[in-house]
Write a structure and sequence with these properties.
Order of helices and strands: EHEHHEEHEHEEHHEHE
Largest sheet: 9 strands, mixed
Radius of gyration: 17 Å
Number of domains: 1
Number of strands: 9
Strand order of the largest sheet: 4-3-5-2-1-6-8-9-7
Oligomer: single chain
Structural class: alpha/beta
Helix content: 25-40%
Number of helices: 8
């Protein structure tokens, strides 16, 4: 079956792993995400995944409560490693070949991020899960997704969210809000649409790396995105 993309970078928030739970990792949700990712992988699409850690610890929230920002961010990075390990293990159980690479050096549990090795894994058909963000404080996992997407020479960054695209207004508050099928980077900026944080957004724009915003909670959405169907919102040059 033909696909619109050969190599993608999927950005998953930590909150996506919670499901309806208050915090932590919901195994049922993780298994469903793994099943959808595996289905896309079987079509020959090479997949890198950047995962957040907000279901366990949010660096910004820690800093807001008085913690040193750099310390809080490093704690958030370690939370992403836990999520990456959980996702990698769920893939193992499902019979999917996956590798976890961390921007922080914790070689006893996951291998370090090495660009050429990650690219080789992708070419071999393995899914690569990138943990610990960029490895630096003060940068979000959105920025890590833009960075890894650029480094891996992905054709698109897929930002998985709770809503099925970018709307003209908050669809939960305004029933007349309409979803954009596609929008330019400049339009998104002028309309102040919060697609990603400013650093990540600027990196994608500068590298001409399109972003697709879609709902990971909508069954089959990932497959429809990869096949080029009208799903979510495409942000492009």
């Amino acid at each position: 079956m033909p696909t619109a993309y050969k190599r993608i970078l999927l950005k998953l928030s930590g909150e996506a792993l919670m499901g309806d739970d208050a915090y932590g990792i919901n195994q049922g949700v993780v298994s469903r995400i793994v099943a959808e990712v595996a289905e896309v992988s079987r079509l020959g699409v090479e997949i890198g995944i950047v995962i957040g850690g907000g279901n366990i610890f949010r660096g910004m929230a820690g800093a807001a409560s008085g913690m040193d920002r750099a310390t809080a961010d490093y704690m958030g990075m370690m939370a992403t490693i836990m999520n990456a390990m959980a996702l990698g293990d769920a893939m193992r159980v499902a019979g999917v070949a996956a590798r976890v690479q961390s921007a922080l050096n914790v070689e006893q549990v996951v291998e370090p991020y090495i660009r050429n090795k990650a690219i080789r894994y992708l070419e071999e058909g393995k899914i690569v899960i990138f943990a610990a963000g960029t490895g630096n404080p003060f940068f979000t996992t959105d920025t890590a997704a833009a960075l890894r997407g650029t480094e891996m020479e992905a054709q698109i960054v897929l930002k998985a969210t709770k809503v099925d695209g970018i709307y003209s207004a908050d669809p939960n508050k305004d029933p007349s809000a309409t979803r954009y099928a596609n929008i330019s980077f400049d339009e998104a900026i002028s309309r102040n649409l919060q697609v990603m944080d400013a650093t990540a957004f600027a990196l994608c724009r500068d590298q001409k790396l399109p972003i697709k915003v879609f709902s990971i909670f909508k069954p089959g959405a990932l497959m429809r995105v990869v096949q080029g169907e009208d799903e979510g919102t495409l942000v492009h040059i």
